[in-house]
Amino acid sequence: MKNSLKRLAILIYLHFSFFLPATAQQEAPYFNLQLQTGDLIFVGAKPDQLSGAINRVTQQQENVSFDHVGILEVSESGIYILHASPKKGSVREPLDSLVNQTLTTNKKLAVYRLSDQIQPFIPQAVLTAKSLLGKPYNWSYVLNDSTLYCSDFVERAFREAAVFQLEPMTFKDPKSGLTDSYWAEFYHKLGIEVPEGKMGCNPNGMAANTHLYKVGELNTDRSHSK
Question: 186-205, pLDDT tens digit by residue?
């Protein structure tokens, strides 16, 4: 009798748990925005060097141009970014570190949020992202399991949710249809062929994802307090 009651209680709990809303992500104010765990932060592209080269061959929307992306985590000790950094590899560091880097380059920082449908996958995505920490940066942008680049890091973190799709990469200037001169020289120095058509992903493509919506841009003017 006791076992039957116990089984009944478990079934009732599971039935009603299924219909409960997903637990809200931790959130905190930062400059002019209210940030949540699982938000994606995108860094604006510059018109030259590697930043410009990435944007030239990946930009999808006229007013959206990004060259970097990371995942935000809000905790009791502060707000962190989990990302694959060209300088540091895959790391978890205070968001202030990224903000301070962008202040000298005048790059904009835009925050995007995942749709309600994807919100339940965020805790697992953060755990997956943390399991990737310590891997070096992938300078070839050819997918492998030993090194990671920024959008690759984010795609892997959310892979279980099937949010982002890998697509054939292109390094061609859309205006000329020829391989962008920066990328031709870049891969020549690496001693490998331009990986035209290889599967991959990029920040601009992620920002255009239908499961994301823009929360806003960080106003990092130091005259405004956080």
Answer: 999 999 999 999 999 999 99
- For 78: left if phi > 0, alpha if psi spans -120 to 50, otherwise beta; the answer is left
Average pLDDT, stretch 64-89? 94
pTM confidence score: 0.84
Q: Is 183 helix (H, G, I), strand (E, B) or coil?
A: helix
Apex CA 77: angle with CA 20 and CA 206, to 5°? 60
- Rounded Cα gap, residues 163 and 136, in angstroms: 24
DSSP three-state, residue 77: coil
CATH number assigned to the domain covering 26-217: 3.90.1720.10
Q: Are the C-beta atoms of 118 and 159 separated by less than 8 Å?
A: no
Render pLDDT for 42-65 as a digit per residue (tens, 0 to 9): 999 876 566 567 767 776 655 568
- Complete edge-to-edge strand list for the sheet that includes strand 78-85: 89-94, 78-85, 66-75, 40-44, 109-114, 212-217
Residue 126 burial (10 A CB sphere; 0-12, 13-18, 19+):
buried
Contacts of residue 94, Cβ cutoff 8 Å, sequence gap at least 6? 78, 79, 80, 81
142: phi then psi, degrees, rounded to nearest 5: -95, 120
What are the sequence ranges of the domains in the chain?
A: 26-217
